[in-house]
Request: fold
Amino acid sequence: MSQGIQKNSEVIFQRNTHFLSTAASLVPALQQHRCPALSLVNAVPDASQIHGWRTDSCGTPAGLANREFGPGEEIVVDLGTHCVGYFSLRCEAAGSPPDAPAHLQFIFGETPAEIAEPFSDYDGWLSSSWLQQEDLYLDVLPAHVRLPRRYCCRYVKIKVISTSAKFSLRLSDIHLMTVTSADPSALENLNHPDALLGQIDQVSVLTLRNCMQEVFEDGPKRDRRLWLGDLRLQALVNYQTYGQNDLVRRCLYLFAGVTREDGMVSSNLFMKPEIIADDTFLLDYALFFVATLADYIEATDDLTTQNDLWPTAVRQMELALERVGKNGILHDSEDWWAFIDWHESLNKQAPAQGVLIYCLKKGRELAQRCDHPRVAWLDQQIGRLDAAARNELWDEEKGFFVSGTQAQISCASQVWLVLAGVGEEEFRARIMANLLTTPPETGMNTPYMMHHFIDALISVGQTSRAVQEIKKYWGGMVQAGADTFWELYDPKRPDFSPYGSKLINSYCHAWSCTPAYFIRKYGL
Reply:
């Protein structure tokens, strides 16, 4: 089934042509919807807003019919909601015949800050090419223009950079043609009696929809890739909303289709010009291949896919177990990386131990479905790692699990070892109660980590508290004006970015869409 090898930097990959052809057969059709500009707005500094800006309405697109634009003049259009797709408008000359090209600049923003703060001030460590802007030169007018790149935005700033002294421009028919593989007819509307939870559900669903393209993207602005950690959470929401399970299946086959020489799946994939596995490997993300496959099989009972991908799932568990020491605990060293959360000071040993036990249990679910002899092996490994976590990582005096040589206490360690089912339910419930009353200094930074916190609360019967936390955290984003949920949200640090600038953050991000999963699955 394999066809040759592929080399990225110093990493050698193997390609499985059967898996890749299966994935290719599952490419979804993209649905399109015309989203016209709703209004014209100005961005206004406002310290009371989370990112320091608000928008004020200053007209309608219909009012542009008699308006002419010369060099240096600009407008900002508001599409009324977060959109992903292709931007179009009509430009025509006013005055004398155009004797020079017209030069326009477009800046696309998911938030008001992106169209208000100059991109020239950007000083983050991610490439500035992720900042959404485009320059257009029109040699012939009038012209109906459709920009070639796909954009992700609610706001579009259109600035006339240059014409000539003899003519100006009129702008009309401003719209964006949205694209998504989500089928809106499959979605059951949720008329929730709690208005805020209803809003949170709607924003969650829009977040997922805008990330559903030819694969489940992590974010339609950045990175526009298939990441395994995001895929796992998107798939869970998909089962409760759009039910486009073939898209989950496609993504699983893609990951299994290009693996490292030793069989490890990459953390993420590039889709163009062909399927390319990134040379970034994360212990927790590789293990989530097992969990995502188990969740998919539970939702679909697709035995063909289970039989095809089971060996890939087993290999992820085997590779992770190679990092476990004689004491049953994952080695903590500089030669590995687990993601867990965007947190500079977070020690990953204990939370990664939790992820490993959690995913071994997911692997056992798969093995039990097909009465595989690996069940006994998995039971042995789970028992060994569970006992080690209690013996080596638990601090009875502090009432928390500790991690690393500095015995760090973090939210992530407690959450993941609770989700792993370490100890009896009463023991786990006590940990979560301690976490709520005495939160550690090393907290949580992302909606991704918050998802697992909510999941852990529900797992110990703290459902009402889970609802409170959803309304506080995701509801905080809604109340701050979010149309889709953000990659990062810390109300105490509104400008927080692990990349050095809030302008490069993603404001429609896959790992943030999970409230709809909790609300719909558990009837919250």
